[in-house]
Each structure stands twice: as C-alpha cells, then as structure tokens.
Design goal:
The complex is a heterodimer of chains A (156) and B (757). With 156 residues, chain A is α+β, with helices and mostly antiparallel strands. Chain A folds into two domains: 78 residues, Ubiquitin-like (UB roll); 71 residues, [2Fe-2S]-binding domain (DNA polymerase, domain 1), CATH 1.10.150. Chain A is 33% helix and 16% strand. In chain A, strand 1 and strand 2 form a beta hairpin. Chain A has a five-stranded mixed sheet, with helices on both faces. The radius of gyration of chain A is 15 Å and the shape is elongated. By secondary structure, chain B is an alpha+beta fold. Chain B has three domains: 206 residues, Aldehyde Oxidoreductase, domain 4, CATH 3.30.365; 163 residues, 2-Layer Sandwich (Aldehyde Oxidoreductase, domain 4); 350 residues, Aldehyde Oxidoreductase, domain 4 (2-Layer Sandwich), CATH 3.30.365. Helix content of chain B is 27%, strand content 21%. A seven-stranded mixed sheet of chain B has the order 9-10-7-17-14-15-16, sandwiched between helices. Chain B has a six-stranded mixed sheet with strand order 12-20-19-18-13-25, with helices on both faces. In chain B, strands 21-22-23-24 form a four-stranded mixed sheet. Classes of the chains: A alpha+beta (156), B alpha+beta (757). The interface between A and B is large, with 69 and 73 residues.
Chain lengths: 156, 757
C-alpha cells in the first residue's frame, strides 16, 4: 500500500507517496518531486553525484533510505541553493570559472563545497582537496573545480 | 535550451515545476511561418517532448542544403541544426560562435538543435575530435552561404549594390548608415532553398568578432543550478521505468526466470524476456530497481575468458587476421643490423572502460508503428539504422533524438541503452519506457578500450642519431563503425558481426624523420571484450609506446630528450611548439636519467610530442613527477602543455578540453585497469576501478598557439595522446627505471624498481 511520507525540501514542507519506506531519498527527489539537481551515479555512495544537504550536511541521497529521515530534517538540493538568476556564491564561482565539462558530477561538487564553506569559510587548498576526495569527475574538470571553490571562498 | 520563441511548447513532464525545479525542456525553433503554412502543426512538436513518429514538420536535413543547418524566423531568430552534438565538451557554444560569426548576428539570437534525425543533417558521429574541424566548417559554409543570399536580397530591397551593405546583428544596412532590413524580414519563416556553396569565401579571420573569444559556455548556468535537462532527467507522460538484468557471465544463457519471485513488488508491469535479453518494467523507478535486484534468474555457466594474469600471452597468441603496414621508409631491417647501438622493448597498455559517471539512460516509445528514441548517443543517425535493423522496422519509421547525458569519451553504453529502451518499449506499445542502467551495467557492459601490445626495435648510429626504427602493434582488427548493440546480441536480433574499435592504427607511424622505418599493425582476429573507441583510441597507446621508446634511444645516446626530438623533427610547426614547451616548462637541457638519485622520493621530468594522426593538431607536454621509492607511488606535480590546433574558436573551451585530457589520462595511466575472472568483468564499481581523485590533481600550465589564419583542428582528444609517455619518461628521469606497462600502479612501479636493481 502506498504511504505518504512528509519531507521538508528547499524550504517547503511536502509529502511523497511511496510503496517502500526503504526507497532511497534520491528517487523521491527525482521521481516524486521532479528535481534535477541530485543525480544517479552509482547507487553505492561512491561517486557523489546524488549529494544533497540534510540539515546542512552533505549527504549521499542514493544510500539514504526515506525511513531514516525524520520530519524535522531539512533537505536542500542544488535547486534550493540558487538559480541562474540568483546563484549561490559557489554556483556563481563555478560559472565564473567555467568549471563544468559534461556537468554530471557538478551537483555533488557544488553541494559538497557549499557544505565545506558553511563549516569552514576559509579552507586551505588541502582542506578543499580532501573534502572533495570522494567525489568523482570523469571529464577531468578537477583543476577548474578547485579554482571555483577557492574563488567562492574569497581566496582567488 | 531556448526561451522566448512563439514556436515553443512546454514539456509534458507534469511534475517538473515542483519546488523550483524548473527543468523545462523547451526547444523553440525558428520555423514559425512555415509550420503554420503546413496546417497549424506546432513546430515544437518536433522537439524532444514530441510524440512518437517522424518529423511533424517537413524540414530539410540534407547536408548540402542551407536549410539543413539554418532557419530564421520572422523575428530574425536563428536556429542552428547541428548533426554534431555536445558531449559535454562545450562544442555547442563553439559551433554557435562559428555560425554567429558568419551570419553577423549575436550568439544570444541563435538556438541550437542537435542530433535529431528528423531535424539535423547527418554530419557523422561526434567522435575523433572532428566537431569543429569538420562539422563546424560545414556550418560555417552554410552560414556564409545564407548570409550572402540575405545580403543580396537586401541589396534588391534597398536598391543598392551588395558591396555597399554591412550586417550588424542580423540587420543589413548601408555602410553609410540609415535604416536597414532585418534577417527576419528578408527570409523569416521561409526556406532558403539554397545549396551550401562549398567554395564560398568565409569571413576574413582578421575581422572575427566572436570566433577566437572565450565566450562563456551557454549551458553552464543551468548545469550548475539543476535547471538543465539531461537525458537522465527527461520524462514523458505515462512513462514507465525499466532496468535490465544482464547475464552474470558474458556468454551465459538464460535458463529460467522465476516470475513469482517479484510478484509482490508494487507496480510491476512486465518482465521482458527475449533470448538472453532480460528486463523489468514497472510504474515507478524504484520498483524497477527492486525487481531487477530481486528477480530470481537461472543462467548457464560460462567461463570462456582467459586468465587476467595471462593477458599478454593471450594477445600474442591471437591469430592475426591481416597486417597493416603504416609506414615503410628505406630498409629498416637492413639498417637495424648495421646500427652502432641497438635497443628493443615491449610496451603494453591495459583494457579500459569509459566509466561514464552517469550510467547510460534512454527513453523509447512505439506508437502507430513508429519508434522514437531519446538517448545521449554520439551518433543518432547511425543509431537510427541500428535500431531499425534490430527492430526490423523501416528506417523512416525510426527517429532518434539526442539529449545530453553524462560524458561518454567515446562509444560507451548510450547506444546499448537506447536499444534496451526500444526492445522494452515494444513490450508495452503505446507507453514510453525509460531505461536507466545500474552502475554495474555501465562498468560491466560498455564496450572496452582493447588491450594494446607493442614491440619496438631501434638502432642508433655512432653519432647518436636514429638510423632504424621497427615496431609491431598487436591490436584488434576493424576501424570506426557501428558497435553491435548489446540488446540485439543478447536477444539474437540483427546486429553487426564485425568489431569496431575505432581507427586504432593512427599514430603508429612516426612524426619524426628517420631514414629507415617499418611500422606494422598486426590486426588480431578477436579480443577479449567487445571493443570500441575511448578518448584518443589507438593514438594514445601508440604514441605512448613510440614516445617512450624514443626516450629510451635518447637516453642510450646520452642526449637531452627534448633536443633528441628536435634533432629528428623536420616539421616547422612541431619545432616551434617544442621550443615554446621548453620555455613554458622551464626545461633544463641534460640527458636522462638525472644523476642525483637518493633512496627516498625521486623527482624527474619527461617530455612527449605528437602530431595527431600525423596530419593535424600538434601537442607537446612535459610531466614533472615525484616517485616514492618505498611505496612505488607516483605523484604528478605539474604538467606543461603547448597546443596548436590552428585557428582557435574558443580559447577557454580548448583549455577546458586540454585540462580534461591531462587529468582523465593521468587517471588512465596511473590507476585504471579492467579486471575480470573467467566469466565476467569484476571491476564493476568505483572501488574496484579506481580513478583520479582531487588530492592527486597536479598543477597544469597550458599555452595555446592560436593561428587564426589556419584551419581549425580538433582539440577534444589530441592532448591525451602525450600524457602516458610524458609520465613514464619523467619516472625514468627520476629513477632510471623504465615503466612499460600501463597503469603504473604502486605495486608495478615497485616491481620495476626491484627488477632494475
């Protein structure tokens, strides 16, 4: 039987109707709510393309079952961070540095970096590299991504 | 994606507007008046959210028609129809720049439609670093032809000679000023009915305003904010979700499917079985995922793969179907015997997966006998033929539409997923089906970059010049072409029987002047895994062997490796490039290896050079590395790259590609290697197939030699060709140990160092 699960996403309270409480959050965000920011990459928590913020922490939504979420947990996706018209400073830095190739990984890069900067406004280069160490990019955009995160941190 | 045209419709994706998702998949293009003339058919019905079937609008897709490439609506908005697609390289922006330049119109007024068999000309697959070099030049000619006619029409309208007219942002007016007439007024909504003039004089490069500028990529604001619609985001009303269930062994046969094992899964629609093809269809994606994981299936045992540890014996033992002699100068055999100093070496390069970050995805719909397939295929026109053959449908009833996916780096799984979607859609005719591969499907079933084995022999004369060079490349037969679709193979439906690994004999011959050369490619009858091209196919492996072995000869001659290359190079552009590289990399002239060798961390630098396919883009690179003698770990500290692809369309776009080539290829060189047991690929995720991570990213210095007066050549792949050899040569410089087996993993580096002592 479908059940209704409350979620708090991008500043709005909503519900999703699901068959399986263990369905990962990623599918609720993409399929039930039509969001494009979090992406399916591996389903194993290895690559980072599915990253969202849960109460400000970068979290892999592909391995986060809905059943593990409480109604007070605030989820923010790439769309909730900003828009082309009003981008978040990390999004703006990625645009300014043209830090995208295919862009499939970029959701994870931006969400992970935004979480880092919220926690550590002036990270060292090493801190940035370590923060992103488990986010995979296949196109080889790493150098630009590092520049973008440094720019967003006001260091470039 | 464009906005603001009267010709656009919004998508049928009903949930897209939620929570600021945006995500509108809107293609408005400039066929307004003509479409209305054809009975109120909305032109956007031919866009990505269109119903199944062929073109709703009769639009030329002829490659020799201006109308094939361009349409201008009554408002003067231009639509550019490109058969070359943006695979995440930014080429969309470059192609728009080329069209805007010839048309003298701002890029903001150009909408880009790509890779739609009903709308765009067949400009060939998007591969081989040819999108700008070939596709862009076709667009440039079409745009120049269109502009000429527009100006001539304006000349009649304004009653002045065409030579007295100028065009400013799509408005034609007298050079002396005054009112003008816009493109929209001149042709808006009507056909050009004009052949592309292949001899047309295109714009003088000294007059370029947009070409040669680092125009910001048009897709990046949407890609960084979640508004972009990738293939994976595409949704249709009534769409079902599917997953494939692949065999656990490459040639295992499907024995039994226990349908009862998944009957409890809500919304399960169908289990589709055809030969060894198996898939599940459900109302929701998660139900499809669960069904694919929980379905009990019995397969036959199959263990036909050779042991991984005996790969190179297997390659050497594979029957040679034919020999391709790629160069034969003088008498290499004889000269070899007369050399003062002779060397020989064997190099090998591992099997790689494309490893696209987003597993392949496609949507297909069959309605009224027509198949429409949305995919991220780099070759929708070829895919159309393949799907038609597999489905036994007339080609005219199949339409393939490109949507950007995850970067593919060649022929990955996108086409196979399209085939999966088509087969599954047939089982639920009338409803669109979306297939999303799992991670293990992509790592396990994308076609692979084949193993490459190379034997080299060389001889030096008494002065330390190369007098003889012989090489033998053991590589699978076949060239570029269509790679058989996995679902067609599994289901026993019509498919190609021959292999298509790409033009992997390229760059087996040398860019250097040597008096006696013989290079031959032994084309093997078969290879372990179905091959295809991965970024820089063959050119990377062949350049790696050539440039490392050249380095061995330089070391034997006790000559600086960069000077040694210059000594054998008779190509002025190549010589200039290497001299610039020496400056950029602060190259210190001395032979390798360096003298001071400690026991801890060793540092060194290595150089490499390529003239891509011996007839276009020049690249030189210097790697600076540190090698930990204890662990065998290589750290690339810095790469310096000088790149000459002739006329540069978008300098930042080229830099982005060069950076990507450097980093992607460091990953391939140091880390990547397919693993398998006797049945199947075993490197099925990112833990078992590690790739480069942020802590391993070096500093990259790039110098572009822009030559606006020359032809534009490709930039998507050439710089990857020099990376493995530059690293190997740098490790030799640091340690005196020659690495001849990619990937250079710490255990291999340690073993090579132990062997050398």
């Amino acid at each position: 039987m479908p059940t209704s699960v409350p979620l708090h996403v991008n500043g709005q309270a909503t519900t999703v109707s699901i068959d399986d409480p263990d369905m990962p959050l990623l599918y609720a965000l993409r399929d039930n709510l039509g969001l494009h920011g979090p992406r399916f990459g591996c389903g194993l928590g290895q690559c980072g393309t599915c990253t969202v913020h849960i109460n400000g922490e970068a979290t892999r939504s592909c391995v986060t079952p809905l059943s593990s979420l409480g109604p007070d947990q605030k989820i923010v996706t790439l769309e909730g961070l900003g828009s082309p018209e009003n981008p978040h400073r990390v999004q703006k830095a990625f645009i300014d540095e043209q830090a995208v190739q295919c862009g499939y990984c970029i959701n994870g890069m931006i969400m992970q970096a935004a979480a880092l900067l919220a926690r550590t406004p002036r990270p060292t280069e090493e801190q940035i590299r370590n923060e992103l160490a488990n986010n995979i990019c296949r196109c080889g955009t790493h150098a630009r991504i590092l520049r973008a995160v440094k720019r967003a941190a006001g260091a470039a | 994606m464009s906005t603001g045209s009267d010709a656009m419709i919004s998508p049928k994706a009903s949930r897209r507007a939620f929570l600021g998702a945006g995500g509108s998949l809107v293609i408005g293009f400039a066929l307004g008046g003509r479409a209305l003339a054809q009975g109120q058919q909305a032109p956007a019905a031919a866009g990505p959210s269109a119903p199944a079937g062929g073109a709703a609008v009769a639009k030329s897709v002829a490659i020799d028609d201006v109308d094939g490439f361009l349409a201008i609506d009554a408002d003067g908005k231009v639509t550019l129809f490109s058969g070359k697609v943006d695979l995440g390289t930014g080429v969309r922006t470059a192609l728009i720049q080329m069209a805007a330049e010839e048309l003298d119109i701002s890029i903001e007024r150009i909408t880009f439609v790509q890779g739609d068999t009903a709308l765009t000309p067949d400009q060939g697959p998007t591969y081989g670093s040819l999108s700008v070099q070939n596709g862009g030049m076709q667009i440039r000619q079409a745009a120049a032809t269109a502009r000429k006619q527009l100006v001539e029409t304006a000349a009649q309208r304004l009653n002045v000679p065409a030579t007295e007219l100028v065009v400013e942002d799509g408005t034609v007016r007298r050079r002396s000023g005054g009112p003008g007439v816009g493109y929209g007024e001149l042709v808006g909504g009507r056909d050009f009915s004009l052949k592309v003039d292949k001899d047309i004089t295109t714009k003088d490069p000294t007059q370029f305003r947009v070409v040669g500028k680092s125009v910001q990529r048009l897709d990046i604001p949407e890609k960084t904010t979640g508004r972009f619609t990738y293939m994976h985001d595409f949704r249709l009303d009534g769409m079902l979700h599917a997953r494939v269930v692949r065999p656990p062994a490459l040639q295992a046969e499907l024995r039994e499917v226990d349908e009862a094992s998944v009957q409890g899964i809500p919304g399960l629609v169908k289990i589709v079985r055809e030969g060894n093809f198996l898939g599940v269809i459900a109302e929701s994606e998660w139900s499809a995922v669960r069904a694919s994981q929980e379905l009990k299936v019995t397969w036959s045992d199959w263990q036909g793969l050779p042991e991984q540890s005996r790969l190179w014996e297997h390659v050497r033992g594979t029957r040679v179907a034919k020999d391709d002699v790629t160069s034969n100068v003088g008498n290499a055999g004889e000269a070899m015997g007369q050399g003062a100093r002779r060397l020989s070496a064997t190099y090998d390069f591992a099997i790689h997966t494309h490893g696209s970050l987003g597993p392949s995805c496609a949507v297909a719909e069959i309605r009224d006998g027509k198949l429409t397939c949305w995919s991220a295929s780099q070759m929708t026109h070829n895919l159309r033929k393949q799907l038609a053959a597999m489905m036994r449908m007339p080609e005219e009833q199949v339409r393939c539409i490109y949507l950007e996916g995850s970067g593919c780096y060649g022929r990955n799984g996108h086409e196979d997923a399209a085939g999966d979607a088509a087969l599954l859609a047939r089982a639920v005719e009338g409803r669109p089906v979306r297939v999303q591969w799992a991670r293990q499907d992509e790592h396990g079933w994308d076609p692979k970059g084949p193993p490459t084995l190379i034997d080299l022999r060389g001889a030096l004369d008494a002065q330390g010049n190369i007098v003889a060079w012989e090489s033998e490349f053991f590589i699978p037969q076949g060239a570029a072409g269509n790679v058989a679709l996995v679902p067609a193979e599994l289901a026993g439906l019509p498919h190609e029987e021959s292999m298509a690994p790409g033009n992997i004999i390229q760059n087996s011959a040398l860019p250097y002047a040597v008096p006696n050369i013989h290079t031959v490619c032994h084309r093997l009858e078969n290879t372990l895994f179905k091959p295809s091209w991965i970024r820089t196919p063959g050119r990377m492996q062949n350049t790696y062997a050539n440039e490392c072995f050249l380095d061995e000869l330089a070391a034997a001659a006790r000559v600086d490796p960069l000077d040694f290359r210059l000594r054998h190079l008779k190509d002025e552009r190549g010589v200039e490039l290497l001299r610039r590289l020496a400056v950029l990399s602060r190259w210190e002239s001395r032979p390798s290896p360096q003298r001071s060798m400690g026991s801890g961390t060793a540092s060194g630098r290595g150089v490499s050079y390529v003239k891509y396919e011996l007839n276009r883009t020049y690249v030189g690179a210097v790697a600076e590395v540190e090698v930990d003698r204890g662990s065998g770990e290589i750290r690339v500290k810095r790469f310096s790259v000088v790149h000459d692809c002739g006329q540069v369309i978008n300098p930042d776009g080229v830099r982005n590609q060069v950076e990507g080539n450097v980093l992607h290829t460091i990953s391939r060189t140091l880390k990547e290697e397919l693993t398998w047991d006797r049945s199947m690929v075993t490197s099925l995720d990112w833990a078992s197939y590690p790739v480069i991570t942020f802590p391993e990213v070096p500093e990259i210095a790039i110098e572009l030699l822009d030559r606006p007066g020359e032809k534009p050549w490709g930039a998507g792949e050439p710089s990857a060709a020099v990376i493995p050899s530059a690293i190997s040569n740098a490790v030799f410089d640091a340690t005196g140990v020659r690495l001849r087996s990619v990937p250079f993993t710490p255990p291999r580096v340690k073993a090579a160092m132990q062997q050398a002592t």
